[in-house]
């Protein structure tokens, strides 16, 4: 396809057999191109398309015969932020407005967390976990991150006053408190009363990437 003009009749003729639809016509092609905001007729060669346009065209080719299930492999790989947002919008349109089931394989977990209803985590070909995104978010640890002048002293104060060890000292200045039932305002006041300067204190939670690393042994995403 690299040197074919992206015109309706070319898509119809060249890909009709591949998608196994005997009555594929220009209506299917036009609808698919409109979904991904590509021109109905474009005199450009495929080789002249940008990466984002090629990705959009690939989605159009996949959906023009109206499949019930669509499998996308790294659909946003290599795209700039605008291209990523556009592809995300196309995928949401297919799911929400057209009722399609879409299986996405991707290493960009931050984007998957914005799209998916259910998540499957695979490591070395083994499915380690499959749950709804909501269930995974509930599992993710919530914590308070303090950036302070003396993390060790702060941890000792919290431990002695509140009988908790559910915290981690990252270095001299960063303390992570995993007991979120404790009042951040109260912690700040105690630190100030004991000569500990506070630069920042905010509530955080692990991301999907953090969770992936946790259950795969933290060796990274390959």
Short overview:
With 222 residues, the chain is of the alpha+beta class. 42% of the residues lie in helices and 20% in strands. The two termini are 30 Å apart.
Any chance you could write out the topology, listing elements then pairs?
Layout: H1 8-15, H2 26-35, H3 51-63, E1 69-73, H4 81-97, E2 101-105, H5 109-115, E3 118-123, E4 126-132, H6 133-139, E5 142-148, H7 151-162, E6 167-169, E7 174-177, H8 184-193, E8 198-205, H9 208-216
Parallel strand pairs: 1-2
Antiparallel strand pairs: 3-4, 5-7, 5-8, 6-7
Helix content: 40-55%
Give the second-level CATH assignment, the architecture of the largest domain.
Answer: 3-Layer(aba) Sandwich
Look at the structure and give the CATH class of the largest domain. Answer: Alpha Beta
In the CATH hierarchy, what is the superfamily of the largest domain? Answer: P-loop containing nucleotide triphosphate hydrolases
Counting structural domains, the number is 2
